[in-house]
Design a protein that fits this description.
about 150 residues, 5 helices, globular
Length: about 150
């Protein structure tokens, strides 16, 4: 995974997260009490993403990457179960990733990761009230296609 994805992940974190400072607090977006509180306790990043490399992003959990088995297990245990996530949005394209690699990533996720996440809460009787009712019944496996 590192050979294929490292430069695209690093491109995203090193080049795509720049936000001009004046966009962080546009006039009128924050009431006076909130402004005082944010000045008393300013949020600072513990580290600059530009100083990190691909392996750092993976080890620190910024990115979940690896073989489909690794991604599947990390998502299940570290994200879904730990955070009790019901609706997970994944980013299968990042940074400068080319179209063909993105398609490969989508295909791998759809075939080898997603099926193991679909029924993760079924044993707890959890019902997704935000999922369209007509789509709630038995799930039909769908093969990813290009």
């Amino acid at each position: 995974a590192e050979a294929e994805y490292a430069r695209h992940v690093e491109y995203f974190y090193h080049k795509c997260l720049h936000v001009p400072p004046h966009w962080f607090a546009p006039p009128g977006n924050q009431d006076y009490r909130s402004l005082l509180a944010s000045n008393r306790n300013p949020v600072r990043r513990a580290e600059n993403p530009k100083d990190l490399k691909y392996r750092d992003f993976v080890e620190k959990g910024y990115v979940i990457a690896g073989s489909p088995a690794t991604v599947r297990e990390r998502l299940k245990e570290e994200v879904v179960k730990t955070l009790r996530v019901g609706n997970l949005m994944v980013l299968v394209q990042i940074g400068s990733m080319p179209h063909e690699l993105t398609l490969k990533n989508i295909d791998l996720f759809a075939r080898e990761v997603l099926p193991s996440l679909r029924d993760i809460w079924d044993d707890e009787g959890w019902e997704n009230h935000w999922w369209p009712e007509r789509l709630r019944g038995a799930r039909q496996p769908v093969a990813a296609r290009r």
